[in-house]
Design a protein that fits this description.
The protein is α+β, with helices and mostly antiparallel strands and 138 residues long. It is built from 4 helices and 3 strands, in the order αββααβα. It has helices spanning 6-25, 60-72, 74-84, 100-136; strands at 36-43, 49-56, 92-97.
């Protein structure tokens, strides 16, 4: 099975859905933030390993605590996945913090700041030529 095959994409989607549901309903660790999102799941073609990308609404400390809590609960989540998803192998889970959402928000803010500065300069440039015309008249 190739990495980008239709079968692999379906397995990734199914694991993403099931892991999200398990985190939301069954994992009772207080370190796991209530606004935890599984952004992506990548199951290896041999179905031995699985990378789970986690995003949390909040600061970096809550993300780190959530990932640590999920790493502690990886055995439970893997056991539950084996019950829910009927595959020959249940992959070992690796939880990885995903900071792409906050990176996107930060980039959007920087772009908005540049656009607003550019607009302020264009307004200032529209005012300055009139001032320069007044200086030319003696």
């Amino acid at each position: 099975m190739r990495k980008n095959s239709i079968k692999n994409n379906r397995i990734n989607g199914e694991y993403r859905r099931e892991i999200s549901e398990l985190i939301r309903n069954d994992v009772k660790d207080p370190r796991i933030a209530p606004m935890t999102t599984v952004t992506n799941v990548e199951v290896a073609p041999d179905l031995k390993t699985c990378k789970v990308y986690i995003s949390v609404f909040g600061d970096d400390d809550s993300l780190d605590e959530t990932v640590e809590g999920l790493r502690q609960a990886a055995g439970f989540i893997r056991h539950e996945l084996a019950k829910r998803v009927n595959l020959r192998n249940t992959p070992a889970l690796t939880f990885i913090p995903d900071r792409s959402i906050e990176y996107g928000v930060r980039m959007t803010k920087l772009i908005d700041d540049v656009v607003s500065d550019d607009r302020a300069r264009s307004v200032q440039d529209d005012i300055d030529p009139a001032d320069g015309a007044e200086d030319e008249d003696p």
